[in-house]
Amino acid sequence: MTMIGNVIRFGRRQLHTIVSKEIIKPSSPTPSHLKTYNLSFIDQASINTFLPFVTFYPNTGFYPSSHDKILPLKKSLSETLTKYYPFAGRFAKVAPSFVDCNDRGAEFLEASIDSSLSDFLKNYQHQDLDQFFPHGLVNQKSNRPDDDDLESNGVIPLAIQVNHFECGGAAVAMSLSHKLADGNSFVHFLNDWAKMTQLLSSREQKHALPDDPHFIPFEYMNLNYNGFTLGSDECVTKSFMFPNAKINELKLKVKAMTAEAGQPITDPTRVEVLNWLLYKSAVAAATKNNSGCFKPTGVGQLTNMRGRFTEKLPEKSIGNFFMVMDILTHNQTEVKPESFLTELKKQKMMFQGIRNIQTAFGILSGITVEEGQRRFDSVYLSTSLCRYSTYEIDFGWGKPVKATVAGDLRKNSFIMMDAPNRDGIEVLVCLGKHDLAVVQSDPEMLAFCN
């Protein structure tokens, strides 16, 4: 273990000090026949970035101090990495096609914060979350200097930082390479790590071992492609909280609007109506800031395909198993709920007809890199992590009081997550600052969120 003296200041709120850093390796070596893990077509085409997720836990008094939680966390992480062996490997920094499952391990850092958890949660801005993460590994950003890279000859897929508040509370921040996993996979890993911590910490041994994750063996292929880029345009991310009661009101409004238009939609989901509201508000803001000129665009809805294939995949399949539904709007009429939601439901039905992951690869392989990047850049991107058990990640200290994604996202994107206590949906909205200013004052948006 290495003691570190780096000090990072969160705006004007509190002082953040890195106190230790080490590598956690799997408790058992990876078998020789699993030493090479080939990345799938979607893995290689995925964004070359890190998934940043953080959970906050108050001091429950179970441990004398927050630091006493660390040894069980390290031990359980070591055990969990034996199951998630690619996460402890290394892969090439540019256009990776496989993971060398060499058991070199994940990074594990500790930091101290000179404020209480409650003070932080009351006063923080979204960008303040970034400093909880190892080396600033948030989306495509990294402030890790080359000479501080523990092993500079390859990418370390997983990095974790446990942040100790003065009150004994903790924030566990985790960054995982998108080349190895999507959001579904990441949440499974975090829950399994938490369950393993409870199992190893329990004197009664009443907790069962988590079910093994499912890694699909793929044949080797090399796209020689580094993945889509997020872009470098300046953007700002803000959280909007939509309570269940307000979402129900929005669903009733959508039903009434579509019935009045003669295209009734009687069964809109929570995510569908929020997608429409967010997109409508963002497009209206962009139009206003473009001298009133409407620009054809659309929404790319990232969709978990595990349960949608005709030949369904196990829910705990680890990797990238998503596709993007494009709902395009060529004029302002197509932004209306009857048009937008009808097209969204049509796309969902089409996705239900895809046979298996190999069929999906065939569809995606017909899209050129240039066309794919152009489509990626031209639409608003929407992702839902709702019902992903993010508030069930319990290391034995109780469930988190806050669980969220950090970082400025891709410009023109929305991420939906369960709100605390499942009382609604929290949406992270990332837009250009001028568009976000308009959205924040949109009376219809404000009517349905806190």
Verbal overview:
Keywords: Acyltransferase, Transferase. This is Transferase, Chloramphenicol acetyltransferase-like domain protein. The protein is an alpha+beta fold and 450 residues long. The protein folds into two domains: 2-201, Chloramphenicol Acetyltransferase (2-Layer Sandwich); 236-448, Chloramphenicol acetyltransferase-like domain (Chloramphenicol Acetyltransferase), CATH 3.30.559. Helices cover 29% and strands 22% of the residues. The chain contains eleven helices and 16 strands. The chain has helices at 41-45, 70-83, 117-123, 183-201, 244-260, 270-288, 337-352, 357-365, 369-378, 433-440, 443-448, and strands at residues 2-3, 7-10, 14-24, 36-38, 50-57, 98-100, 106-113, 158-164, 170-177, 236-242, 297-304, 322-329, 380-384, 402-405, 413-418, 425-431. The strands form three sheets. Strands 1, 2, 3, 5, 7, 8, 9 and 14 form an eight-stranded mixed beta sheet that branches. A six-stranded mixed beta sheet has the order 10-16-15-13-11-12, sandwiched between helices. The longest helix has 19 residues, at 183-201. Mean pLDDT is 89; it is low at 1-5, 7-14 and 146-151.
Task: Give a nutshell description of this structure.
The protein is of the alpha+beta class and 450 residues long.
Write the layout of secondary structure elements.
Elements: E1 2-3, E2 7-10, E3 14-24, E4 36-38, H1 41-45, E5 50-57, H2 70-83, E6 98-100, E7 106-113, H3 117-123, E8 158-164, E9 170-177, H4 183-201, E10 236-242, H5 244-260, H6 270-288, E11 297-304, E12 322-329, H7 337-352, H8 357-365, H9 369-378, E13 380-384, E14 402-405, E15 413-418, E16 425-431, H10 433-440, H11 443-448
Parallel strand pairs: 7-8, 11-13, 13-15
Antiparallel strand pairs: 1-3, 2-3, 3-7, 4-6, 5-9, 5-14, 8-9, 10-16, 11-12, 15-16
Helix pairs in contact: 2-4, 6-10
